[in-house]
Structure formats: structure tokens, C-alpha cells
Amino acid sequence: MAHAKLKRMLESGEFFYAPGAQDMIAATVASRHGFDALYASGYWLTASAYGLPDAGIVSYTQMLDRVSLLARQAGDTPVIADADTGYGGLLNVDHTVRGYEAAGVTAIQLEDQEFPKKCGHTPFKRVVPADVMATKIRVAVEARNDPNFLVIARTDALQPEGFEAALARAELYGQAGADIVFVEAMTERDQMQEACRRITKPVIANMASGGQTPILSISELKEIGFACAIFPALSSLAAAAAMDKAYAVLKAEGIATSPDVPLFDFGQFSRMIGFEEVWAFERKWADAQPSDDNAT
């Protein structure tokens, strides 16, 4: 079931934002900080689970498995999930929306690239005709069962067709029923301002660290007019940098402890992922456990 929180915030005009969570550890750590939502990025879930690029290689079934685990791990925190192109035609879009909703996702993101899609901040993207994507959005809206389940329509048309075409597509997708629209890979602050000024539906900002879009603060994004934002790459790049540093120190110095490598407290981490409950269970049922001598 989708969380009502994001729709409520969207309708009231309250800005919300979601850091990316590439795996279950990231989702668990993020839960300590009380974010409005978490973002399940196709790029980073694919990289984390399979070590593959975001190039349409991973299937719907594989992504649904990861998204389902993430939504379960997130608990009371809503999950915004990337569903690429919907993994095929209109029937696939219908199936994808129903699957993501059943998995506990609160908002699904669909894009207008041709299959196989590419990461939004890489070259050689191609988009389907605008009316084809608009029909996909209408199918997605009709496929949902929970009124709190949100549909986000992303256009990647800026690179192949230009800014004006991207804005026209975003407006069309909003008219088709998308709750939120997403103009991917804007390269200038002026473009971001113009998009928010001219698009009538709520607009989401993609603060992809290392990508083509300027990284702005939450206050700046609010001032420009965005309704919400995602930070898909933050935790993944931070984790990769930390691991790279730790491995470098181990290789160079031959030791696993160093003031240059901060470590999360192991006991705290164990409790955070649920070991307290395991230990409590073991204490409760200690006398009922069969001994090795009685085992059969």
C-alpha cells in the first residue's frame, strides 16, 4: 500500500525530498535521519546489485525484486522508485505499475526514452514520440489501485530535441495524468527556473551528484519553484569513496584501523539491522533449544 504522506505534501505545496538508497544498508542508515522519502534509482540499484551500467540491461523482474526489498526495509518511509521505460509496451507498463504498487512503492517514475534506455546524464539518448509516452502515462494512471500512489513522468528530450521540446513534452505528460513531471538533465539554473515557471504540474528536481544539472540547496530549489527533489547518487558515491579509502589504507599500511578511515560502530550497526530482536528471541527460547546430544 502506498503511503499517503507524499500525496498530502504534494497537494499542500509542502516541499519534500528523497536521498537515493542503493541497497538495504543505505535504506537502514537513512531511516535514522527521518527523510520524507527514499529514492530507488535504476542506475544505483543496478550497479549495487549486479555491477552493471544503467543501460536497459536489468529486467523488470530483477528491478522489482530490489525495489520490493527496499520498500520493505524502508518501513514507514515512502519509496519513490525508478521504473525506466515501463519495461516495454502498454501492457508492460500496466504490469509494472501494478507490480510496483503491490511491492509497497509510493511513487513510480516512468521515462520517455527508447528501449534500451540509458542513464539520463550520459550521451546518445533517444526518445519515443511524445504521444506514445503520453499514452503510457494514461495507462499507468489507470493501472493504479491506490489513490495515494503517484505517477512521475520523466522526459529525456532535452538532449536529442532541445529545451522547448522537453517542456512541451512535460506539459503533455502532465495533461495525460502524471502527478509530477521531471525534465531530466537540465544544464543551467535558468532552465530549471523556466521549467518551474512554465510547467503547470509539480516539477521534481534531480540533484544527481556528478551529473549535468547544477546541484542546488533545498532552499534554492524551493525558491526556484520545484515541488520536490531526489538525490540519487549521494549515498552511493559517498559509500564508494569511503570503501576506496579504506581499501587503500589497508593495502598501503597493512592495518584495518586508521584515523583516516572512520568506521561505523559495529555494535550500533548490529542493533540497527535487528540483532537485538534475535538476541531477545534466543534468550526467551534458550531452554527449549535441543542439545547436540538430542539432535536427530
From TrEMBL:
Domain of life: Bacteria
Gene Ontology terms for molecular function: oxo-acid-lyase activity
Protein's UniProt name: Carboxyvinyl-carboxyphosphonate phosphorylmutase
Provenance organism: Sphingomonas hengshuiensis
